[in-house]
Design goal:
The chain is built from 7 helices and 4 strands, in the order H-H-H-E-E-E-H-E-H-H-H. By secondary structure, the chain is of the alpha+beta class. It is flat, with a radius of gyration of 18 Å. InterPro entries: AB_hydrolase_fold (IPR029058), Dienelactn_hydro (IPR002925). This is Dienelactone hydrolase family.
Length: about 140
């Protein structure tokens, strides 16, 4: 599929579009979409690792809490889409914390490949994991 997409892009390049213009339009610019910085003084953002009770090894998620939280607060579970725990999902968790909520964004792909560094790894995960496997990661690993 990547080769087919590349050949299609090659045809567009022949029409006068530059490859840089085309690829920048296809790849999300997470930095431009960030609304709350990870080091904002009003929040505390950390990565939390946890054991998987169903034998998937270790899980990881992104936990963000308001820094001045003194009482119990509602918790929001932020579920990522097929690209894993990417910068946009982390920003959503930070935005929730800025509104006084505790936000936790588990990384369903972490037990398979660890911290994702490339879109190639995300694509491998998408092909390897079925919907029931992902549901098991989210629900059983997080003890819901």
């Amino acid at each position: 599929m990547i080769v087919e997409n590349f050949l299609s892009l090659g045809g567009l390049v022949a029409l006068g579009f530059t490859m840089t213009t085309l690829t920048s339009a296809l790849i999300p610019n997470y930095a431009a979409a960030e609304q709350v910085s990870f080091n904002d003084p009003a929040i505390k953002a950390t990565y939390v690792k946890f054991d998987s009770p169903k034998g998937h090894g270790e899980g990881q998620g992104y936990l963000v809490v308001p820094k001045d939280l003194q009482v119990k607060a509602p918790v929001v579970l932020v579920i990522h889409e097929n690209r894993g725990l990417n910068p946009y999902i982390k920003d959503v968790a930070r935005r929730l914390a800025m509104r006084g909520l505790v936000a936790f964004a588990p990384d369903a792909l972490f037990p398979l490949v660890g911290t994702l560094a490339t879109m190639t790894k995300v694509e491998q995960c998408r092909k390897a994991w079925t919907r029931p496997k992902l549901k098991k990661i989210f629900l059983q690993q997080l003890r819901f």
